[in-house]
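Students often ask why we bother encoding 3D structure as a string. The short answer is that it lets us treat folding as translation between two languages. Here is a chain of 512 residues written in the first language.
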Amino acid sequence: MPGVLALSGQNLTLARIRTALQHRDRLALAPGALRRIRASRAIVDRLHDDPEPHYGINTGFGILAHQRVPSADIEKLQENLILSHAVGVGDEVPAEIIRLMLLLKVNGLAVGMSGVTPRVIDYLIRFYNADALPVVFTKGSLGASGDLAPLAHMVLPLLGLGEMTYRGKRQPAKVVLQKLGLKPLTLKSKEGLGLINGTQFMSAYGVHCLLRIANLTKTADIAAATTLEAARGSAAPFDARIHDARPHQGQRDVARNLRALLRGSRILPSHAHCGKVQDPYSLRCVPQVHGAVRLAVAHARQVVETEINSATDNPLVFANGDVISGGNFHGEPLAFALDYLAIATAELASISERRIYMLLHGDTIGDLKVPRLLMKDTGLNSGFMIPQYTAAALVSENKVFAHPASVDSIPSSLGQEDHVSMGSISATKLLEVVKNVETVLAIELMCSAQGLEFLHPLKAGRGVEAAFTAVRRVIPFAQADRLFHDDVQTALELVRSEKLAAAAERAAGKLL
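And here it is in the second language, the structure alphabet:
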């Protein structure tokens, strides 16, 4: 049953967001946040007719910051700000990320340092709760003066402008407002700036990707354990003593997961005295590689959770009446973290593809034999040769996406904004990396399940057998070539649904 997520601008976590999304909780403002919002607005109202210039309240913006705007034109100034900055291009932002943008913008305004009126926040909450989603575009932000272009598109509907998706239909925002019983707003001083200054575009991508990566880190361990069994590798490298000797927490956690997944295996003891001395790195070094990814994920989570509970507007309105212009909208912390996260997440696919390639060589230990290309009648059949091609293509594409966007900067606003983070590019390419990694891991699971078939009736570890069963419920054993595209898509859905990880955990216990 849906609950309520009361946003205070403080202590919002990824775990709480995940729960709210799963339960379709409605948004509301915490009482303390509403008091702070009203107090900051009262300060802005007092400065409206002040003879002294106050950036964003009675001046222009960017290079025009020194240009005073008459009191009679301040409302028109706010409207012009939104109109002029709504220049986004490219693909439309996915609906699930627009929801997060709305949620995070409300939470950012709930900090109470932006000087907007409660009615503006109420409209954003109404949009979220009604699932009336503004049409926003992926490209146009430099990630420095806030995510100006995407946030401008997000708030255009407040003015009755732009388009929204509502009840499955794309409609003019003015029509959707009427259906919601709302009238277009006239923005007051500082409100336009408070709405489009901020890092909620980058942050929303960061939150969305981190929630998916949390599933991927577990799935990668499950895939590696399944491949280890199918390849009849050794579990010795996962001995806790090895990882206590190099006590990175991520490495220790992965080794623990692998031990849990492999517990009860009858396949591993069956070749205890074979001629193999060591496995390839893609098996032997799974704790070290997957564990390093987890360290990067932990760092990114810390940065993102700090960011989503921050005031990233400019200028900031302080409780004592000071209004101070600064640079909290600059996306450098996010840009670095999201670039780092893309590099780390891409490694899950890189090592997975190597395990896929290794599996295709087959295995001739003992009486049970895993055939080359994971199929007996090859020549007539190509077997699983070509799914590895797809995995290789995605890994190569990830190498392009892993190039850090944050090393670039192009001056804007006639040099006033002379250094930018490009964090919006870090954000959007991270999502592409995540999607590619999900697909590569799906291919590995499809291949390792095929390999395990040749080793049955010997059983793999309890967690691995549970994962195998989850795959076999939706993808049958391949006796001959078929349309493997369909199998890849089915495996991908299994990964994304988190059902695979859940099945493995029910058998092996909670994975870290």
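Translate back mentally: The chain has two domains: 4-198, 205-408+417-508. Keep this in mind for the problem set.
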